[in-house]
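S1.2 Input.
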Amino acid sequence: MIRDRAADLLLRYGERRLLPDFSNRLTWAVVIAGLGLAVTPIPISAVVFGWLIKRVGELTGIEIPLFQFEPTTSDRFIGFGFVLVALAHNIITKRGIPNANHAEASTEQRPAEVDIALFSEFINMFSSNSRSAKLLKNCDFGGMFSTKDLESIDVFSVEWNCPEKQFLDPGLEDKREALRQKCEEFNLLIASKTSPTHNGLQSVVSDYYRAGLWPDWLENDVQVVNRVATELYGQHQEFVGYARHVLER
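S1.3 Output.
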C-alpha cells in the first residue's frame, strides 16, 4: 500500500512538473519534431526537421536558412535533445506558475479583506442587537421612544455617505447605499412627524392628542412611520444576510 501511494505521488509530481505544457504552441512544435527525429527513419526525419525549422521561424520571427542543416544519424540524438529541452523548459516555467497564481489570488483577496473590515465596522455600529435595530423591530411609534435609540440610524445615514464607507463588491455596495437612503427616509419622517413628550421622550402622538381620540391624519402618520420602520428593519436584515453570504463564502 505504501509503495502504491509513493508511486501515485511520483506520477502526480511528474504530471505536474515534467510533462510539457501543450497550451504553448512552441512546446508542441519542439516535442513533436523531437520525437519525429528520434523514432522515424532518416528521410522522414529530414522532412520533420525542415518543418520544425520553419515553424520555429514563424513563431519567433527569426528566419533560419534550411540549407544549413543536413540530416544524419545523429538526428536521433538531436530529437531526444529537443524533448529534453522541452521538459526542462516546462519545469522552469511551471516553477514560476504557483508564485504567479499566488500573487493573483492575493490580489483577488485584497478587495474581500477591505469589505470584511468595513462590514465588521458596520456590525459594531448597527448590528441586529443594537438599540436602533430593536427600535425598528419592536416599537409602535404611536407610543413613546427615546431619541438615543436612533443613534445607529443617524450615524449610518450621515457618516457613511462618503467614498471611505463604500464596499468594493458592487452588489454589496448597492445594498449598502439602498439601506443608507432608507435610513435617510426614516430620519426625515422622525423629524417631520414626531415631537417631544412631557417626559423627555419622543412620539408621533403629541401630549395634546394623547388623552383623546386621534384625528385621521394622526392615525395615518403613525401608520406611515410604523410601515417605513418595518421596511427599514427588513432591509437591514437583508443587507446583513447578503453581506455574510458574500464575505464568508
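S1.4 Remarks. The chain has two domains: 2-108, 127-247.
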